[in-house]
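Exercise (ungraded).
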Amino acid sequence: MSDVVRVDIQDQVARVEINNPPVNATGQAVRQGLLDAVAQIGQAGAKAAIVYGAGRTFVAGGDISEFGKPPQLPHLPDVYQAIEDSSVPWIAAVHGTTLGGGFELAMACAFRLAQNGTRFGLPEVNLGLVPGAGGSQRLPRLIGVDAAIDLATTGKMIDAAKLQELGGLDGIFEGDPLEAGLAFAADLPARPTKVSARDIAPVDSDYFAQKHAEIKKRAKGQSSPLDNLKAIEWAATLPFAEGQPKERQLHLDLRDSAQSQALRHVFFAERAVTKPKAIEGGTPLEINTICVVGGGLMGAGIAFACLQAGYQVILIERDDDAAQAGQDRIAGLIEGGIKRGKISDEKAVKLRSALSASSDYAASASADLAIEAVFEDLAVKQPVFQSLAAHMRSDAILATNTSYLDPTQIFEGIDNPARFIGLHFFSPAHIMKLLEIVKLPTTSKDVLATGFDLGKRLRKVGVLSGICDGFIGNRILSAYRRQADYLLMDGCTPRQIDRAMRDFGMPMGPYELQDLTGLQIAWANRKRQAATRPADERYVRIGDLLCEAERFGQRSQKGWYQYEEGNRTPQDDPFVTDLIIEEAAQAGVTRRDFTDQEIVDRLMAVMINEGALIVEEGIAERDLDVDLVKIHGYGFPRWRGGPMHYGEQIGMDKVKQAMAEVVAQSPNSWRVAGRLS
Ligand code: NAI
């Protein structure tokens, strides 16, 4: 008998326990164990079989580590077919997260019972796949085409109550799955038609074409949502015996696809990112109360995120009016949460009572951690920390949310430097997933580990960064923008560059994005960097000239594009095109045409190069840290795996070649990373 699948037959009822920690994944041993169980139970002439999971969940999916290898016998669809075809009716009694292969197993059973609160889903789409064991073929037969498309093309989860409402369950229970299964088996209803043999209600002739258009728009270049739609269309138009092998073949083909490899890379990276070497041996300190200094755009978002994660929050502002304004801003975010149904009235009361605001630093005394988000000015930030240090415990953690200043300077003169850290949030701070956790040379492992712990509680992706101008994310962004400006000078238009990068998969191109967020911050940065910029580096001043002409982007209705009142659609502006041509002529540049591919190659080359430099310098520990920063903070398409993974995928030789062209185009302007030179 298999270790991971145990069969116990008593009173003609078989108990089939899957025990493959941590999540009872359908690895080879589980598949074989289940297949053997079908035979054993059939021979024993049992009247019912109950399959359930040991531990905290039923089967939560496939064994992803098997995906890179050739599939091993027995194949999952055959195992599930054997269960569905068995002379003995199988009852799935599930709990926890019944996902992917787990949900497919439940659908192959004659009956499905779920513990209250169990969550169901087909997350294969998130790994660039379609289900591989009949999920896309049985689900529409179980709950209808609409609901099946909704689940399979998004990977979202629904709870047991919702699945029952959709007709996918035979019962919901509280308590132990096996006990519930036994109670059900004691009074077994007549066996219903197999799910795979059920009819699907016909849909309108243009139904799938419409869905295709809808999903394609939402998928932004990712192909797996459309693959899942296609598989469900097979279910709706073909008998199960034809649709199922097609689904299986597509699943196997997709395992080798670039998108699935990239998405799996991100899946593993998101697990590895929480464990950088720098926190090994560190123990997170207990944080209950957080003091947020500055209740502006960032501070209010940070405070709101902390409240939602269950912390007590003390907001400090520069005077009473500002404290009130900050508190109002946070109250507005809570209201917004209520309106969107994300926060209950009861929860809102709790959040409000966990918040206090003051202009007196004495209020910070009880906090375990302070996060500063005041103006981006050393002369403002330094006194803030002096005041905090005067009132807070000497071991309380001090964090700055600065984007560009050097944290070492910000904390100058404060005692106990082991407690200094950077916590760089992204705007809007309560929504954006990325949190750069910045290590100073003095930061202790415990304090760093606390930063990661905080990130986890805030449900953010915490990425470790060392200190450099812009940390990981903004440093790469500025290289990217600099190269985009070189391309402008050499022959492109903002429109063409934006289109090329959108087609690559970015949510927006670099120029439309600058217009959206405003041109001033980058302008201020360029001015700040002017003193240290190498004299022979190529400098494009078009952005500066736009700012000097008070073209700051959408909010001034002019930037890289122009905008009509109340309309955010960028319109080409001859002012900008003329300016580009003039500047190029003045610099003696002969403009030429670039293909979209050349634009992508060059912009990606500088991104990858900057990422490689960042790793080389030890600012990031690993390539995967760079990948996650770009994906979670800058909208880099997840299905491309992040810039570093993308570089590996297209081949570093190609990147090297593109980087050589970049350097030839703008000599003396780039430092090239070791692995690209
Ligand atoms: P903001 O101007 O919206 O808010 C700053 C707040 O700090 C204001 O409410 C102001 O009254 C308050 N403040 C100023 N001096 C103070 C003092 N001495 N004591 C207490 N409060 C004081 O600025 P924003 O955008 O929220 O930025 C704050 C910080 O966050 C800056 O360091 C910025 O670089 C950083 N950051 C900003 C991002 C953004 O997208 N805006 C993104 C990531 C970081």
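Further reading is listed at the end of the chapter. For now, observe: The two ends are 57 Å apart (CA to CA). Residues 596-616 form the longest helix (21 residues).
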